Structures are given as C-alpha cells and as structure tokens.
Amino acid sequence: MSTIPTPDIHARPIQDGPPSGGFKPVRWGRSLPDWGPSPRATAIGVAVFLAGSYAFLIFGNKQRQRNAAEKYQARATLIPILQAEEDARFVAQMDEFNKREAEIMKGKAGWQPRNPYFTQKFVPPHSTKAQL
Known about the structure:
By secondary structure, the protein is mainly α. It has 1 helix and no strands.
C-alpha cells in the first residue's frame, strides 16, 4: 500500500525571478512617420465638405419645391378645361342613353323618360381624371 507524500509546509516555495542584471528595457514609445495632413487641416477639410454638402442639399430642396409648385399650378390651371371636356362628354353620353332608352321603351304605354337622379340640379359624374 502506497502512501501519499505530504508536502513540507516549512519549505520556501520555488519562484521564478528576474535574470541577473534585470530585464532589457522595453521600447514603448511610438515612432510613426510624420505624413499626411495635420489634424487641423483634416478638421477644416471635413467642415468645408459638410458645409458644401448642406449647401447643395438646401439648393436641391428649394429647386424641388419650386418644381412642385409649378406642377401644382399647371394642374390647377388645366382643371377647368378638363372638367368642361368631361361635362360635354357626359352630356353627349346621357343624350345618347336617353335616345336609346326612348327607342327601347317606345312600345310601352305610359312610359316617360325621366331623370335617374334625385335632384333637378345638374350633378357631374364622379371622375378621377381631373385631380390635383
């Protein structure tokens, strides 16, 4: 039967130490080459670039607003003309419809052509052709 050796609690621990004469000095400083623009020049360049970019952005937004206003004005100018054309087309279509209805119903006793609307006032049909 083997026994487990017990450590000597009074013995000094073995520890690594520095070599005799010490370690060599560590070079910790950075020696990067001095090239490229200075930080101040870089900051000024970025500021000029951003200012120019914002100027172009503002100019583009104003131009887009002017174009949108011109488009809106052109459409608003054309709406009465388009509405008049649509009303004339509608009246011609309704006349044709009434003639066809009268021809179909000519043999029916007591039939009278009537307005299919609930009002005597002219109401144009709903149309999505002339919208802004």
